[in-house]
Design goal:
Layout lengths: L1 H7 L3 E7 L2 E9 L5 H4 L6 E7 L3 E9 L2 H41 L2 H5 L38
Antiparallel strand pairs: 1-2, 2-4, 3-4
Helix pairs in contact: 1-3
Length: 151
């Protein structure tokens, strides 16, 4: 049990058994989300115990069995991990915006036009109109007719 509680620090508040139920209480920053994270945990009920200008104190409630304990701790860990990851992403985003601002101040317009941030991630955003440039050059050997559009 110690390791489970330790993994939730500094957000752990209390662990109680109330009428055959377990209640795991955690303190979350106000800007953290949890509703969508909890939805898949069908055996958990939530109760907001306190909400003030500093934090939200909420209880994750399930049956007072081994499975109930396991599920409230798993859910709490997921809430913490997802929100910490989101905070890190936002921090990284701000750093990357600053890097881009510096890059845009230093580099020429032609070099900036060649930047494609999504190319390495399997998604490519193109700003062109999607048309192929017309040319007087011949196509592959053996094919000399002009092509008609199928549109």
């Amino acid at each position: 049990m110690f390791e489970n509680i330790k993994s939730l620090r500094p957000h752990f508040h209390s662990l109680r058994e109330i009428e055959n139920n377990v209640s795991l209480d955690i303190k979350l920053p106000l800007n953290w989300g949890y509703e969508d994270i909890i939805k898949p945990y069908r055996s958990i009920k939530i109760k907001v115990q306190d909400k003030n200008e500093k934090f939200t104190l909420m209880s994750l409630i399930s049956t007072g069995t081994q499975d109930g304990y396991d599920v409230v701790f798993a859910c709490a860990l997921e809430i913490l991990q997802i929100n910490k990851d989101e905070e890190e992403k936002q921090k990284l985003f701000q750093e990357k915006v600053k890097e881009l601002q510096t890059l845009f101040k230093k580099e020429s317009l032609d070099k900036l036009k060649d930047i494609n941030l999504l190319q390495d991630y399997g998604q490519e955003i193109t700003t062109g109109d999607g048309l192929v440039k017309q040319s007087n050059d011949k196509g592959p050997e053996g094919y000399s007719e002009s092509q008609e559009s199928d549109d």
